[in-house]
């Protein structure tokens, strides 16, 4: 996460949460799977611009799973897509916790001055 | 891996993947029954963390199906994700029940330690918290400070929680007698007296005591049984004095696991010379995905920024009102004791007690707490209807 301010980073985490929560609440097939793909492409681009390559890669994994081979069984396909979503949510949360910690460490590193 | 464990984890993984794929519109009572069954199996296999995550996943699904405003999609996704992650942790073979390092095992399994019997503990209430997880749990958490030499100034919790069953205000517990006390001791007396608890169960890892009615847990007053307040040992709060150094140490020593929420808990702190300089409400326009929060900004003895973020729920009404009163008074209180967390890159205090010129008071309840028998009876009547 080299580019952008912490505020930009929080905004991107919000975007990850909003996009994924939307799919997890409405369902992958709601409105046709294809309707999720443009939002995911935008998300991936935002993540890449913030040098959050790991999560961007996981989002690409979800896009691939959604566009995945038609020969996969329904169960397999569901498992791949759901697994990809779960990995994104877990990774985003871990990054968010790290950002939380680093931001507060910076605040606390300021010299102690009584108010 | 035990076949039973593997079967359970596969079932949890499959269920969470079906829920993730289908979304909530296809969710049914059948799903909640299945989760309940898996939850019982997880408890039997002592997978407490998994059982807890399944339980809260079920709570959110139940709220969604009943169209309760308490449904929170973010929380639903968190527990769905945690159930999937925990099942994956077992299925990936990286967590063999006998092979994993103890600390890592504890992370995945949850707290498997048993409570021990303690003959007596001398305690004084240092904080009070109301809990209402709609459809799941309801009650009070008492945060005591230990006055025993062996656990000097440790914070020890007592949770009085039950299913809500129609009750709406946990204050009702304060007027009730502590189970097993003879003569009956009402809970509200714990707010202002030094007490000795005898024959109690103690869960070290959670720093939590449990009333054991079979062993006849006893509650005794160390000074007198009158309603008069015993002087609070304010010096004990020094152990929790919030400075940059102490908080930095907590942050640096915290071990992050993939199962944590994005709110990062740092334990108890005492913030000295605190005043509230602003008040606002965040997240009102975020639809059903978030619960809005009341945000209070503190000025205090030290230089680091500090907020209180209190969920906008009926159970927090009095707490928010009391914090608003501190804000409008523009007064500086001697100190605020509470739980510290990091949320969205900001240190956030959940207030459990305030100390001012008149002593200690608990912002979760009205400063001059009065019990209305009519209100209690109304609540109990609603409970039975």
Spell out the key features of this protein.
heterodimer; A: 115 residues; mainly alpha; 0% strand; B: 385 residues; alpha+beta; OB fold (Dihydrolipoamide Acetyltransferase, E2P); 3 domains; six-stranded antiparallel beta sheet; 12 strands; 31% helix; globular
What does the model show?
The complex is a heterodimer of chains A (115) and B (385). Chain A has 115 residues and is mainly α. Chain A has one domain (6-108). Chain A is 73% helix and 0% strand. Chain A is built from 4 helices and no strands. Chain A has helices at 6-26, 37-49, 53-66, 74-109. The longest helix of chain A is centred in the last third of the chain and has 36 residues, at 74-109. Chain A is elongated, with a radius of gyration of 17 Å. Chain A starts with 5 loop residues before the first helix and ends in a 6-residue tail after the last helix. Chain B has 3 domains: 3-109, no CATH class; 116-231; 235-361, OB fold (Dihydrolipoamide Acetyltransferase, E2P) (Beta Barrel), CATH 2.40.50. Chain B has helices at 3-22, 29-44, 48-65, 73-91, 102-109, 171-174, 244-253, 317-329, 373-384, and strands at 116-133, 137-146, 155-162, 194-203, 208-210, 218-221, 264-282, 293-299, 306-311, 333-343, 346-356, 359-361. A 6-stranded antiparallel sheet of chain B has the order 9-8-7-10-11-12, with helices on both faces. A 5-stranded mixed barrel of chain B has the order 1-2-3-5-4. Chain B is globular and about 60 Å long. Chain B starts with a helix and ends with a helix. The relative contact order of chain B is 0.11.
């Amino acid at each position: 996460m080299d580019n952008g301010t912490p505020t930009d980073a929080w905004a991107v985490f919000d975007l990850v949460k909003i996009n994924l929560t939307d799919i997890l609440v409405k369902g992958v097939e709601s409105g046709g799977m294809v309707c999720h793909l443009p939002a995911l492409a935008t998300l991936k681009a935002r993540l890449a611009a913030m040098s959050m390559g790991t999560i961007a890669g996981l989002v690409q994994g979800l896009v691939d799973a959604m566009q995945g081979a038609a020969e996969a069984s329904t169960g397999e396909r569901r498992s791949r897509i759901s697994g990809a979503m779960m990995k994104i949510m877990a990774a985003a949360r871990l990054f968010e916790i790290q950002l939380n910690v680093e931001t507060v460490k910076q605040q606390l590193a300021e010299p102690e001055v009584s108010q | 891996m035990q076949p039973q464990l593997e079967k359970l984890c596969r079932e949890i993984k499959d269920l969470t993947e079906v829920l993730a794929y289908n979304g909530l519109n296809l969710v049914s009572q059948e799903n909640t029954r299945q989760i309940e069954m898996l939850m019982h199996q997880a408890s039997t296999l002592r997978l407490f963390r998994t059982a807890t995550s399944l339980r809260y996943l079920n709570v959110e699904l139940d709220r969604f199906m009943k169209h309760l405003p308490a449904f929170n999609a973010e929380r639903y996704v968190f527990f769905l994700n945690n159930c999937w992650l925990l099942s994956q942790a077992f299925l990936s073979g990286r967590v063999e029940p006998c092979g994993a390092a103890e600390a890592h095992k504890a992370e995945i399994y949850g707290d498997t330690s048993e409570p021990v019997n303690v003959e007596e503990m001398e305690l004084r209430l240092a904080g009070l918290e109301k809990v209402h997880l709609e459809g799941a749990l309801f009650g009070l958490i008492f945060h005591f400070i230990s006055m025993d030499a062996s656990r000097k100034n440790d914070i020890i919790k007592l949770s009085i929680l039950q299913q809500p069953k129609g009750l709406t205000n946990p204050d009702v517990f304060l007027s009730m007698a502590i189970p097993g006390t003879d003569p009956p001791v009402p809970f509200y007396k714990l707010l202002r007296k030094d007490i000795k608890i005898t024959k109690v169960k103690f869960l070290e890892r959670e720093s939590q005591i449990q009333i054991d009615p079979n062993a006849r847990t006893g509650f005794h007053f160390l000074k007198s049984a009158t309603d008069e307040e015993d002087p609070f040992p304010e010096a004990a709060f020094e152990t929790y004095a919030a400075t940059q150094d102490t908080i930095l140490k907590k942050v640096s020593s915290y071990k992050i696991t993939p199962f944590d929420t994005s709110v990062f808990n740092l334990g108890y702190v005492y913030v000295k010379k605190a005043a509230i300089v602003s008040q606002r409400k965040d997240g009102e326009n975020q639809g059903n995905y978030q619960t809005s929060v009341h945000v209070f900004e503190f000025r205090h003895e030290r230089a680091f920024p500090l907020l209180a973020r209190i969920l906008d729920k009926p159970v927090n009404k009095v707490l928010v009102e009391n914090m608003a009163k501190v804000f409008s008074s523009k007064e500086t209180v001697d100190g605020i004791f509470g739980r510290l967390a990091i949320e969205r890159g900001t240190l956030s205090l959940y207030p459990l007690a305030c100390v001012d010129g008149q002593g200690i008071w608990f912002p979760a309840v009205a400063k001059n707490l009065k019990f209305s028998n009519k209100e209690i009876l109304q609540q109990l009547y609603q409970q039975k209807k």
